[in-house]
Design goal:
This protein is mostly helical. About 75% of the residues lie in helices and about 0% in strands. It contains 18 helices and no strands. Helix 4 (about 40-55) packs parallel to helix 7 (about 80-95).
Length: about 290
């Protein structure tokens, strides 16, 4: 059965045929009948990821068919299999991107905490950490209540640990920073981040990956929102990390990228004497 599902993954027109024929429900039923068969579940995850990635409109059907519940069930059944947990996290990350109903479904099933626990069980598996951070970031994005719940559950620390342990993996860094940027609207998350070593880790990583504009942009968002939440105390903490020099560095590297340049410039605006200029706050996705 797993071989059949893998074959569908490799057929170019399979996604459209599966969606139009109601095949998503069939995949979920297959998973429920073979819930402890690693090969079937692995193949199903790959196919579900391909469908959600290639067909945005299919995500609503996937939620109705119970894909979220089926995927999260695998986290418990295969807790010792980091590669399968990684694929489950990838499915959750993709389905929940810009899909509010999926975000609610994941949060309602304690999905973020389950993913965070999976990350903790396999802290050295970089791709699991990457997709886990991506799932956490996507589910929280734009959802204040979900973000506050995730913060209360201690998930911020799981993300900090992932970034700390995978400083040489650009994917973990990017999605970790995205997740942390979203956390800034919850409780004292800004203080938790600024009091940890993750700030130095991320700032150094941005210098190491000078061409990664997206990482630089989201780091600006993270630090801007941390400063907005923490005000004077946050500014004092960031000054200890030579934040002014870092902002100038980012502006010099991305002088031709208006979005990154502007985000760094607006972060710089928090610190004297650069706050003497009239600057609007950045248009942030957080």
């Amino acid at each position: 059965m797993a071989c059949v599902v893998y074959c569908l993954c490799s057929v170019p027109l399979a996604v459209a045929e599966i969606v139009s024929s109601g095949g998503i429900t069939g995949i979920v039923d297959l998973v429920s009948r073979h819930a402890v068969h690693g090969g079937v579940c692995r193949a199903a995850c790959l196919l579900l990821y391909n469908i959600s990635y290639e067909d945005f409109d299919s995500r609503g059907m996937m939620i109705d068919a119970g894909v979220v519940q089926a995927a999260l069930g695998m986290l418990e059944n295969f807790s010792a299999d980091p590669s399968l947990l990684m694929m489950v996290s990838a499915v959750v990350a993709c389905v929940s991107a810009q899909t509010p109903r999926a975000k609610v479904a994941v949060s309602g099933e304690e999905g973020l905490l389950s993913i965070a626990i999976a990350m903790q069980l396999h802290v050295t598996h970089s791709k699991l950490q990457m997709y886990g951070c991506a799932a956490i970031a996507n589910v929280m994005f734009g959802e204040v209540d979900i973000t506050e719940k995730a913060y209360a559950d201690g998930i911020t620390q799981f993300v900090i640990t992932a970034v700390r342990n995978h400083v040489t993996h650009p994917g973990v860094l990017l999605y970790g920073v995205k997740a942390l940027a979203n956390f800034m609207q919850a409780g004292d998350a800004w203080r938790l981040v600024l009091d940890s070593d993750v700030v130095d880790i991320v700032l150094d990583a941005c210098r190491a990956y000078q061409g990664n504009a997206t990482l630089h942009l989201w780091t600006c968002y993270l630090l801007h929102h941390a400063t907005d939440e923490g005000q004077g105390e946050a500014k004092r903490k960031l000054m200890e990390h030579y934040i002014v020099n870092w902002c100038i560095f980012v502006m010099s590297v991305h002088c031709e990228s208006s979005e990154v340049y502007w985000a760094a410039k607006c972060l710089l605006h928090w610190f004297p004497p650069y706050n003497q200029f009239s600057l609007k706050p950045p248009i942030s996705p957080v």
